[in-house]
Amino acid sequence: MDFKYIGGSMGSVVGEKISRAIDHSIQNKSPLLIISKSGGARMMEGAISLMQMAKTSAKLTQLSDKKIPYISLCTDPTTGGTTASFAMLGDIIISEPGALIGFAGPRVVKDTTGQDLPSGFQSSEFLLEHGFIDFISNRNDLKYKINFFIDLIQNKPLRNYNYN
Question: What is the pTM of this model?
Answer without folding.
Answer: 0.87
